[in-house]
Amino acid sequence: MKKAKPAADPQAYLAALRGWRHACVEALREAALGSAPLEERIKWGHLVYFSNGPVLLIRAEDERVLFGFWRGQRLASLEPRLEGGGKYEMATVVLRAGETVGKPVVRKLVKAAVEWNASLGDPTRLGARPGRGRRGERVV
Known about the structure:
The protein is 28% helix and 21% strand. By secondary structure, the chain is an alpha+beta fold. It has a single domain (10-119), classed as Aspartate Aminotransferase, domain 1 (Alpha-Beta Complex). Strands 1-2-3-4-6-5 form a six-stranded antiparallel beta sheet. A hairpin with a 6-residue loop joins strand 5 and strand 6 (91-95). Helix 2 crosses helix 3 (103-120). It is globular and about 35 Å long. It starts with 9 loop residues before the first helix and ends in a 20-residue tail after the last helix. Residues 132-140 have low confidence and may be disordered.
């Protein structure tokens, strides 16, 4: 993906998209915002949603849309396409043209992710490690 100036706000981010990526991001965004009280921001050049720390991201790229969760590895039973990787307990669904995540699944994922942040705290706080709770206990 080419380097571009980040969108000024979430509405501008969505307005800059065309075709299937616009439709996909719009559907994910609406379902996420309707699922739980979230703060929506542009961070790292894409949409990021917060509730007691970052909860999820929506990132449109040239050939795909990423729908990721900071505690996504804990959500794999709700969406088997979530692939773990990166820092924290990150997991992401990679969507290409014609692929979607249904609104009921988005709602379940967002609600569960918000609940994990409420019980464990901000996943980006110092000491947060994959598979570990807030006090370092092993999470199954």
